[in-house]
Amino acid sequence: MTSSKNRLDDTFKALLTRREEKNRLRRLTLRQSGVVDFSSNGYLSLSTNPEIKSAYISHLQSSADEFSLGSCGSRLLDGNTLTAEKLELDIAAFHGAPAGLLFNSGFEANTGLFSCAPQPGDYVVYDELIHASVHDGMKLSRARTIPFAHNCVMAREVQSSSTLRPLDVVLGDLLSGPEGQKIRDGQKNVFVAVEGVYSMDGDVVPLKDIVECVERRLPLGNGYIIVDEAHSTGWLGGRGKGLVCQLGLEERVWARVHTFGKAMGCAGAIVLCTPTTRSYMINYARSLIYTTAMGYPMLTAIKTAYNYLRSGRADGHLAHLLSLMQETHALLLSVCEKHDPPAQLFRINTSPPESPIIPLFSGQSRSLARHCQQRGYMVRPIVAPTVPKGTDRVRLCLHAANTVAEVRGLCMAIEEWLREQLARDTSSKSDIMPMPVASFDAASVVEVSKL
């Protein structure tokens, strides 16, 4: 007789098979030695920086009294340390914030913050492309949630393909709706959730416009903006302080989430906020309360990375990274102009990149990624449902350790793949007998144009 455990495995196998048939099965992979990294989020290449690694080891060796492998408890029990509290103060001061609270990851920071901050009857208005961790936090909250069109503040900015409304319209509808009076009177709060840089498209949020929109619509101050700076920490703004600091909006943004697993090269995260909000999360953020706190080695890694930024020694890496962004985009534009591929085969955004993330849109993103990988360049295909249907892409991430020669080699590999695809398409078309013009009708032409 089949046990219930085996029946459950059978259910799992069927679900995995269904996902594989749709070409959506996820697998763990190991980074191959010798490949050029155009995939990871370590934009400043700090995780492998010899100077940082040497400083980190020196810190550990000179702190025998404080050193322990782990904290062995949550921060509310036995896991809190002076090292953690001092690090929070130092990071908050670096980013111009009054206080901060460390979390083990950006995911835990977002789930903790969004699950407990909104009160019953409050609203969370969020960018449609907000990170999955924010979605999970909102599901755990007592708030009502409404998406708005990606990076669109006013009605004129909405793309014709979008089914969502801009932020200004969403807020206007809230204020004129059934709960409008309570929102206008300040009895109900509206939280607005955005990212500093969006990880799939690499575009920067129009944060100044969003702040002005929220302040205009909610003049009593019950509009609270939360910015996830995961992909802007470390490289954007002076000394890598992030987008909020770059725009001088520290006093007008309610909370920021800075993560350390990307440009900072280590792990963990911090929520920057008021001292009262910090105390509130210590009491109500379950992802902090019920997890083991970070140990001394990780706290020291974060401290070492921040010391490197604060000293200005990362400025040269950043200058090279910014130059590389322009060089890469120019080379890709040249490839597109030379071959003029159909948009569904390959296209890039024509405007200059706003971040080290450059999406290479392709309906054959898996084939493109595989071709580049076989030639020694690590890139990853990103397909639906991770990105909206019809926007499959290879995500190209640049790093300070990449060289111009490596970028040129990657672009040559992309062009080689493109030539092969175009030649194959041309060959396929030549094998097909032309259809008489009279056999076409308007409906068939419209359907072809949608492909």
From TrEMBL:
<feature type="domain" description="Aminotransferase class I/classII large">
    <location>
        <begin position="35"/>
        <end position="414"/>
    </location>
</feature>
<keyword id="KW-0808">Transferase</keyword>
<dbReference type="InterPro" id="IPR050087">
    <property type="entry name" value="AON_synthase_class-II"/>
</dbReference>
<dbReference type="InterPro" id="IPR015422">
    <property type="entry name" value="PyrdxlP-dep_Trfase_small"/>
</dbReference>
<dbReference type="GO" id="GO:0009102">
    <property type="term" value="P:biotin biosynthetic process"/>
</dbReference>
<dbReference type="Pfam" id="PF00155">
    <property type="entry name" value="Aminotran_1_2"/>
</dbReference>
<dbReference type="InterPro" id="IPR015424">
    <property type="entry name" value="PyrdxlP-dep_Trfase"/>
</dbReference>
<dbReference type="InterPro" id="IPR015421">
    <property type="entry name" value="PyrdxlP-dep_Trfase_major"/>
</dbReference>
<dbReference type="GO" id="GO:0030170">
    <property type="term" value="F:pyridoxal phosphate binding"/>
</dbReference>
<protein>
    <submittedName>
        <fullName>Aminotransferase</fullName>
    </submittedName>
</protein>
<dbReference type="InterPro" id="IPR004839">
    <property type="entry name" value="Aminotransferase_I/II_large"/>
</dbReference>
<keyword id="KW-0663">Pyridoxal phosphate</keyword>
<dbReference type="GO" id="GO:0008483">
    <property type="term" value="F:transaminase activity"/>
</dbReference>
<comment type="similarity">
    <text>Belongs to the class-II pyridoxal-phosphate-dependent aminotransferase family. BioF subfamily.</text>
</comment>
<keyword id="KW-0032">Aminotransferase</keyword>
